[in-house]
Design goal:
The complex is a heterodimer. Chain A is mainly alpha-helical. In chain A, 65% of the residues lie in helices and 3% in strands. Classes of the chains: A mainly alpha, B mainly alpha.
Chain lengths: 78, 263
């Protein structure tokens, strides 16, 4: 708990990619979508971040696994 | 756990196989047995790479990359096989093909990873400097062989094929650096395993090239002289086979995720 949405997404990606590339990917694609740093990300930005990460994740994971990892239904809004 | 077991298997398996052949086979049968063992490990490597290729979509660059590496091992298996591998032209064309397919496959893998947007995980200085150092090392290891093959090509046109093979060796050794860098960058993630094992396979082949180019009196024992290159060749193939399996296991093991709590 206490992690911002972008950090939680990075933790999820760390399982297949390793923590360092996961953070790099979230950092890169967060910057592409917004001006503030990933730590300041808001819940409503997560689907956009998933969309930005999808093409990148399809390369090392393959399209099926990438869709599984980024499936929108796994998002949980309070 | 499965991945660790896979990673631990190639070296002891190669050592035991070579020791058994050297210890138990009658001396007149050694060549034939090592040839049969060579065909087997290369076929296993090709099968492992096909298993990895099939985990990706049909137009994916990684599928093509794994398929090219599988093709390399298939060619190597065919050119090692008795009868087919006895024809000089088959051996030389096979060596050339294998030395083109393997570095091309590795290059595509590295390109796919760098092109995916994950490159910032490796500091840019390291990303450029290490391949340059690896290229210098490749020239040091494969350069003398390249020069002697270029000289021989003047008298024997077939020897020209070996020149391209030596260039392929240089490419493979150079690509070892980015493979290792990617494996290191991904450490802690499941997908680091196939990259690390593929790099271990390339390293085995590099050591095989080094040991094979040594003068016979450097390795004093006849058992070592025969066994060490055979062991390095077998471990190169087996590392590649388990890299392919690790790719499949690693992707299957990525869990279905629990919800991300965005509150």
């Amino acid at each position: 708990m206490g992690q911002c949405p972008a950090e939680q997404v990075a933790s999820r990606l760390a399982e297949p990619l390793g923590p360092h590339p996961a953070q790099a990917a979230v950092g890169t694609f967060s910057k592409g979508n917004r001006k503030s740093p990933p730590e300041a990300s808001r819940p409503e930005e997560v689907p956009g971040l998933f969309d930005a990460l999808r093409p990148m994740l399809r390369i090392p994971l393959g399209p099926a696994k990438a869709e599984e990892v980024l499936a929108p239904q796994v998002l949980e809004f309070p | 756990m499965k991945l660790r077991l896979l990673a631990a298997a190639p070296l002891p398996l190669a050592a035991i196989t070579v020791a058994l052949i050297l210890g138990l086979a009658p001396s007149g049968q050694l060549d034939l047995l090592f040839r049969a063992e060579g065909v087997l490990v290369k076929a296993v490597a090709a099968a492992g790479c096909v298993a990895a290729a099939l985990t990706f979509a049909s137009r994916s660059r990684l599928r093509l990359a794994w398929s090219l590496i599988a093709g390399c091992y298939l060619v190597l298996a065919l050119k090692t096989a008795p009868v087919l591998g006895d024809a000089l032209l088959v051996v030389r064309v096979g060596t050339l093909l294998a030395n083109v397919l393997a570095p091309l496959g590795s290059l595509l893998m590295v390109q796919a990873w760098y092109g995916s947007g994950l490159a910032p995980a490796i500091p840019s200085l390291r990303r450029w400097l290490l391949p340059v150092l690896a290229f210098a090392g490749a020239i040091f290891v494969a350069g003398p062989g390249l020069v002697s093959r270029v000289q021989a090509a003047g008298q024997d046109p077939l020897a020209m094929l070996l020149v391209f093979s030596a260039l392929g060796d240089i490419g493979s050794i150079t690509l070892l650096a980015p493979l290792l860098l990617i494996a290191l960058a991904m450490r802690g993630g499941r997908l680091a395993w196939p990259w690390a094992l593929l790099a271990a396979g390339e390293l085995s082949w590099l050591l095989y090239d080094v040991v094979s180019s040594l003068e016979p009196d450097v390795l004093s024992s006849p058992v070592l002289l025969r066994g060490l290159p055979e062991m390095l060749r077998a471990s190169g193939c087996l590392f590649c086979a388990v890299a392919g399996l690790a790719q499949r296991v690693a992707l299957r093991a990525v869990p279905r995720y629990a919800a991300v709590r965005v509150a």
